[in-house]
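Protocol step 4 of 5: obtain the predicted structure for the target chain.
Materials: sequence only (see below). No template structures provided, no constraints applied. The aim of this step is simply to have a reference model before the mutagenesis design in step 5. Sequence pasted as it appears in the construct record:
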Amino acid sequence: MPLDGIGSKFLTNELKAELIEKKVDRVYQPNRNTILIFFRSGREFKKLLISANPSSPRIYLTTRDFVNPKSPPGFCMMLRKYLIGARLIDIVQPEYERVFIFKFSTLNDFGEAEDRFLIAEIMGKYSNVIFLNKDKKIHDALIHVDQDMSSKREIMPARNYQLPPSQNKETIEYYLNLNQEILPFLNNENNHLTLEKAILNNVLGFSPLLSAAVVSNAKLDDRLHVTQLTKEQKQELSHSFYRIVNQILSNEISPTLYFKDQKDVKPFDFHCLELKTLPYRKRLDKFSLTMDVFYSLQDEIKEFNQEARQIDRIINQNIQHVQKKMDWHQKDFSEGQKADYYQKIGELLNSQLYLIKDGSNEAKIIDYFDPTQKEIRIPIKSHLNPADNAAMYFKKYRKAKSKLQVSTKFLKADQLELKWLFSLKTALDKSENMDDLKAILDELSLLDENKNRKNSENSKETEKHILKNALNPGKPGKKSKKKMFEQNKKRQKKQQTSKKELPLPPREFILAEGIIVYAGRNNIQNEQLTFKKADSDDLWFHAKDIPGTHVILKADDAFKIESEHIETAAAIAAWYADNNKVKSGFGGQIAVDYTLAKYVRKTKGARPGMVIYDHQKTCFVKPALPLKNKIEN
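Step 4 output (structure tokens):
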């Protein structure tokens, strides 16, 4: 959830303690909505992150590293010009608003001290980063807002800066000073809002999470409306509100991450207060650290989902391309199946030329291949003589026969490629981290390599012709030029290969001492596991008749392998199979074949990971990963 006004108050105090009197050392803009400001004091550096991303605006001190563009954007260059070397002298937060005003002291072109202001507005889709001059006029902003976008508040250069419009809410001090047993908005008979909405709409700085905590502390049903409450329930809700207010005003900050389940490793929310109504939580020392952990994990999920969607789009495009090719090849195959018919008609016409009249559009001949010797009608060309019409059908026969041979070969290749692409889709569905996605991308790069190889083969003769004409073999010096050309080509190829990263290792699970299970991340790893890493007596596992990963069970001593180890390895193979529905709650048992690795073979011309095997046994297991001793790679 976004930062609320209460959290902004505590964060402002934390940033003051960390950054006041420190100087700006560097400014970066990693992406369109994010600003990074490095503060320095002696040898100590602090990194302030400000993001105006509408989906997740934020501000906090971070320890993360970001990739910066080679050419910094104009807004970043402007901040560098005015802020590098500037000293931060104050941070102001208007009461419980998600607005942070950083006041800097800097020197102008004449060496005179001037104040400059950087304002971070962390307000959902209205978030922005605005830079003001000494007169508090807008010098520039990360996001420009003109009159067409907002008639109430323009954010454009040379305009006077105005704070965001008031939300018509009251502060917690206001309600505390009233000292009423029941909060005023709870006595409003026209208030038909739910309890959480009523608090959210009337108290400045409260978030949905904090409002829900007030209701939960009062032990009231969050589905109740204000008009449904009794006097005693209103009093209990008011007392719950005052307890949290006193906790806020006494500066009892307890930065906490909140989880939906005890097993979750990624939090769903955070707050500056420890809300004990949420059972699964983890406290941290600082609020900035809490936000840094939360958003790092959120960004990791977003990056993973974004990359997965992009890979899925590439795979789907290739599947559509292959299916389109299959349609064309299927048409050629259907046409090729007429070859025997064309040959038969040609032979019948040749044997009965005397029955065909010149200039006729139809030939009536006896079908000698039919036991009943019936008469058939054959369409012919009127402008051709009988012999030429027979030759036309023989020509159709040869063309159809060629189509049949070629299309049969292409259809087989298309089916293998389609099977390979669907196996990549299965691997994508089972991917768990960025390493898994990278492995799939590495395999997809084979498509580009194959295309480039075909293009290079097609243009081989053209290159030779160009080289021959460019070097002019009759002139002296042709040998040195040709040699230089070849050396440059080899050097470029060597540079390309040297830039390639080391391949990712397969997934690894330790079942017991000396007993390890390996599972491939993609088809390339599957092939390496089965034919290079696995010994002939290692056990090989794969889901039966469906796409999945290759799994190898290795042991220092084969006699150590027990039935439970085989069952665990089979469960791992089932987990990465295409029809594993355990995560969706509809999972059942899956058939898994296993055999010795020496009985697994690769068919000639098949894609990576496409194998055949025999001597297998089949077991039925429920998909699962071992809970202990998993090595994360």
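Step 4 remarks: DSSP finds 14 helices and 23 strands in the chain. Residues 474-478, 629-633 have pLDDT under 50 and may be disordered.
Proceed to step 5.
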